[in-house]
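Thread: "does anyone have the structure for this chain?"

Original post by V.I.:
We have the sequence but no experimental structure in hand. Need at least a predicted one for the grant figures.
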Amino acid sequence: MTIDQEIIDIRRHLHKNPELSGNEFKTAKFIESKLKGLKILCKCIGKTGVIGTLKCAKFGKTIALRADMDALPIYEGNNVEYRSKKTGIMHACGHDGHVSIVLGVAMLLQKKNELSGNIRFIFQPSEETSEGAKIMIKNGALREPDVDFILGTHVNPWIKSNKIGLKFGAMMAAVDELKIEIIGEIAHGAYPHKGKDAIVASSGLINMIQCIISRELNPLENAVITFGKIEGGNAYNVICKKVKVCGTIRTFNKKTRNFIKSSISKKLKAVEMAYGVKCIIDYNEIGTLLVNTYKITKACVKTAEKFYGKDNVEILEKPSMGGEDFAEYLKIIPGNFIYVGTSKNKYTSYPWHHTNFNIDESALPKAAKYIAYTINELLK
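Reply from O.Q.:
Generated one for you, tokens below.
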């Protein structure tokens, strides 16, 4: 079997057998078996994480390559031979492709005498919950030997297959999670004046918070506030006592992040006064800003232009409002996050987290060869 086919087979095996964040036990065992088959030193860390180390040079640099491996609680709509065997769980973000790329790199680089440094392969759980990178770092993923720089990859359904996307500087937003509970007073729906309506209060609060972006921030600032969940009420004719709303805030600098957080707190107090309700907030900063290192990015652009051809390298001008916990590694060591184009037709162009998300698998072996080539060049 060729390496190209093995990389695709790995992706299909993982796609059939997805596991949610923090429960990637079988995925970890599968990865561990592949690394041991390549005679690469490996061990499990942080419950379901795996690291492998290819020691090639006693005094050389050490470069890490990271792949996330968790799936999502999404029902798969694709009618393909390798569709998920687990109802309601799916690799809808391409993490199966990331693992296959990194294992492909391991296959390509296992000849130790060709390298002038060391490789650390990081297979990380729980990216979707923004917890995995911190867990891996805490458990020594960047130590023994100390990692000098790091690369990460992510398949991209908006970049044509067999193209590479690279971004200098800030690439992905800081991510905050917002949960608010509005507590009113129950009453009969025919006598609303006898209660405190949590539904009306929550609608007023949501509108006020949305106006932070449109009316309080400088229009040139990049920020997003999205409420993705709201629940409350028990009957059509009863004044609702309690409503829960959940959302996310995405920003690109600390000043804007703090401003939005402060403004939301003020609006909660205003809603309490205006509607006679009580508001309880749970605000969590769960993801940091992802900023690529200029020098490493420049080197990746150079290798991409040589490997893919200049016309197949997209230098991204604008950052993404998406979040990625690869940023946690970049807070400690320099590195770069690379988009691998996987869009070939309408079936491979659905967005991340879509029930029909799929990729052009032919892009994976080429990406593995590009990463292996780039690692060789960086270690030189």
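V.I.: this helps a lot. Residues 3-172+289-379 form a domain with the Aminopeptidase fold (CATH 3.40.630.10).
O.Q.: and The first helix runs from residue 3 to 16.
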